[in-house]
Amino acid sequence: MSPRSPPKEDQEECVSGAEIIAEALKMQNIEYMFGIVGVPVVEVAVAAQASGIKYIGMRNEQAASYAASAVGYLTNRPGVCLVVSGPGLIHALAGMANANMNCWPLVVIGGSSDRNQETMGAFQEFPQAVRSSMYGRPGACYIDIPGDFINLQVKKNAVKYVECCPEPPISMAEETAVSKAVSFIIQSRKPLLIIGKGAAYACAEKSIRRMVDQCGLPFLPTPMGKGVVPDNHPCCIAAARSRALQFADVIILLGARLNWMLHFGLPPRFQPDVKIIQVDICAEELGNNVKPVAALLGDIKAVTEQLLDHLNKKCWKYPSNTEWWRELQAKIKSNEEASKALSLQKHLPMNYYTVFHHIREFLPKDCILISEGANTMDIGRTMLPNYHPRHRLDAGTFGTMGVGLGFAVAAAMVAKDRNPNQRVICIEGDSAFGFSGMEVETICRYNLPVIIIIVNNNGIYSGLDGDSWKEMTKLGEPSTWIPPVSLLPNAHYEQIIPAFGGKGYFVQTPEELQAALKASLAEKHVPSLINIMIDPQSDRKKQDFHWLTRSNM
Question: Could you name the Gene Ontology cellular component terms for this entry (predicted)?
Fold first, then answer.
């Protein structure tokens, strides 16, 4: 007597909750997942890899969430950060907050404790989460996954997946508002175009480049707006930033916000009667701090095309021989001369300007620059040019320290897929490096094309030199005399990376810096770390205003 065959329904193929999660993400064109696995999300990471999603295991959830958010900025589709509940999610909150402030799409998935099956069905929320992270002002979304759902088996033919969430709809500004904006632009004597990272995220570079070329407008990029129009364009007035902001009579904001980074748009950094034309995808942002004379709500690229169409019909171009241009060009010349004089100083230890002068000579034009740290980031922004959009990531609107290596991992993963010969250069202060330094192991584990450059001044803002440190050790207990801004002097951070297979370089002179840069760029398949010692008291050149606007009184 032959054994009885099991019922047909028992033979149907089953899938796990983890596999459903992975397939749902794949259906949404998710390409990258960053995280740290633990119970109950290990199976989710395994399933994601099996589905074709690239999983990158990080060393801290904070760095993982930073990396996933940077992918959202670089690709216009959210990256995913996978964490366990409790402390794992708490660590990821920093990246979620950073993504919201920068307006970058991010999906965070956390595994929680088991729940009753009556609550299952949460996975239909994936398309909504992806859409919510991308539409309108992009930002972070969180999905909590019951632990028992991850390993639950269900019949494959019973699972219904939702089609891929389409790209956000393109919205355009009201024509009357566009006409009003154009009338102010044409009447302006001292116009200024400010290009924000919102313009970079909107992929509006071709439209904005045409506007600059055809209209001859002076433009100022915000830190992550650099490269939307190349920094070497003759209309770029970044080297006269303070002068341009202070005396412009009409300012066109393209995806930039009048927050602390632009000194709130208020005197004394701006004219009291400056006329603001604001272009933004988010209605809540319009009129924040300064009421615009024209508020253009819509997609940055589409609205730029609208403006350009109106300006072309009027055959308008801002003259290149105005007093405004002469004023800006004179300030550019004086500031560049001051920076050059500092960069050519021969004394040791080197200063910031000398270091960046030599780095600039070796940087590939298409490299992705990651930058964080106080003076390291601020001075580097002025001295290291960007020629392509979305090729600079930094501390951003939230001023977040610790983003650097997470951003570098994300940029390198995207670069490997899109441009295998592209290099990622991560330039950090020694304090900033300390936030996520163990991600060096991640970079080496995945053999990512990253060069880490630490500009080491022995501290936060400033530190102590070795001799001063030795003298102060005579004062007794370290907690009573080590200045709060000081770190251990002459720390050999470059010795970390060889432990994982990378190459480290300790640099004290311009010649050693040049040699280290040459060697690192020649090693296309080995990550490297260059630790550059500078004068602990090195600072920015004299500024017209303090970098942080504390009061407008």
Answer: peroxisome
Three-state DSSP class for residue 356:
helix
Element (H, E) at 393: strand 392-393
CA atoms of 431 and 494, how far apart (whole Å): 14
Helix axes 352-362, 323-343, angle to 10 degrees: 100
pTM over 0.90: yes
Query: pLDDT 10s per residue in the chain (553 long)?
Result: 444 555 555 567 999 999 999 999 999 999 999 999 998 899 999 999 999 999 999 999 999 999 999 999 999 999 999 999 888 999 999 999 999 999 999 999 998 766 553 444 434 345 568 888 999 889 999 988 888 888 889 998 888 888 898 899 999 999 999 999 999 999 999 999 999 999 999 999 999 999 999 999 999 999 999 999 999 999 999 999 999 999 999 999 999 999 999 999 999 999 999 999 999 999 999 999 999 999 999 999 999 999 999 999 999 999 999 999 999 999 999 999 999 999 999 999 999 999 999 999 999 999 999 999 989 999 999 999 999 999 999 999 999 999 999 999 999 999 999 999 999 999 999 999 999 999 999 999 999 999 999 999 999 988 888 888 888 888 888 888 889 999 999 999 999 999 999 999 999 999 999 999 999 999 988 999 999 999 999 887 777 777 666 555 4
In the chain, the N- to C-terminal Cα span, in Å, equals: 97
- Residues 535 and 348: their CA atoms lie apart, in Å, by 7
Q: Which two tokens stand for residue 501?
A: 């297979």
CB atoms within 10 A of CB 309: 11
CA distance 548 to 302: 33
Task: Please name the residue that has the structure tokens 């859409």.
Answer: 131
Q: Which amino acid is at 17?
A: G
β-strands 153-155, 79-84 pairing: unpaired
